[in-house]
TrEMBL record:
One of its GO terms (cellular component) is extracellular region. InterPro entries: Gp-FAR-1. It is found in: Secreted. The lineage of its organism: Eukaryota, Metazoa, Ecdysozoa, Nematoda, Chromadorea. It comes from the Eukaryota. It comes from Cylicocyclus nassatus (Nematode worm). This is Fatty-acid and retinol-binding protein 1. Belongs to the fatty-acid and retinol-binding protein (FARBP) family. Residues 1-15 form the signal peptide. One of its GO terms (molecular function) is lipid binding.
Length: 226
């Protein structure tokens, strides 16, 4: 269920101040946090993280900072495959790892039920559409992604038993993360539904509750400040 990880990462990224700049030191700290939760990270992803070289880290940091500054044309990035191709072009050392992860994810996605495939494809499209539409406006992007969370959760709750089984077989780590944090997700879901839409991006409580889902364990605290 990479759609969950992607959505979470982008919502968090939207909170970074415009002057934010990623460093290798910050990346190393984030990696150490991620390594503390191996049950939630697919082995094919963790392997690429564990074997990251100094060159790959430097390329990744440079790529992220350029992406944050708007140096890449996001209107040409319509899906994860397009993003991987961009990484392969701009950060070739990292691109090799991104390709391994993308190909494995695609192979696994083909093994889940049609309901799951439709859901994953829909949310990937939604994710990239919002990246294109709100590129350069992090506040608007954060608000839009927050507003989509209730819809995402309602669709997940509508999964058939067969769909859940297929997801657990192909994406065991992501489904474990979802189920282990289901109560917190439900609380956040109810909180978001109770907020007037115009207050979503301004209310500091929204971000505090989002951080309480466990993100503060994975990211430096400066990454979670609105």
């Amino acid at each position: 269920m990479n759609f969950v990880l992607l959505s979470v990462c982008l919502v968090v990224a939207s909170a970074f101040p415009h002057e934010f700049k990623l460093t290798v030191d910050m990346l190393d700290k984030a990696i150490e946090r991620v390594k503390k939760f191996p049950k939630y990270i697919p082995s094919y992803v963790m392997e690429q993280i564990d074997t990251a070289t100094d060159e790959e880290k430097e390329q990744f940091v440079n790529f992220v900072n350029k992406l944050d500054k708007g140096e890449y044309k996001m209107d040409e990035i319509n899906n994860s495959e397009d993003l991987v191709k961009l990484v392969e072009k701009e950060a070739p050392a990292v691109g090799k790892k991104a390709r391994i992860i993308q190909d494995e994810y695609t192979k696994r996605m083909q093994q889940v039920t049609p309901q799951a495939q439709e859901f994953l494809a829909k949310w990937e499209k939604t994710w990239f559409t919002n990246v294109q539409q709100y590129s350069g406006d992090k506040k608007a992007f954060f608000k839009q992604m927050i507003e989509l969370i209730p819809q995402l959760m309602e669709e997940v709750h509508g999964f058939s038993e067969e769909t859940w089984k297929s997801l657990e077989e192909q994406f065991p780590e992501q489904t474990a993360a979802w189920k282990d944090n289901e109560d917190r997700l439900k609380q956040f879901y109810e909180f978001i539904k109770s907020l007037p839409k115009q207050d979503l991006a301004e209310d500091p409580e929204a971000f505090r509750k989002f951080a309480h889902l466990g993100l503060q364990k994975l990211l430096p605290i400066e990454a979670l400040r609105a």
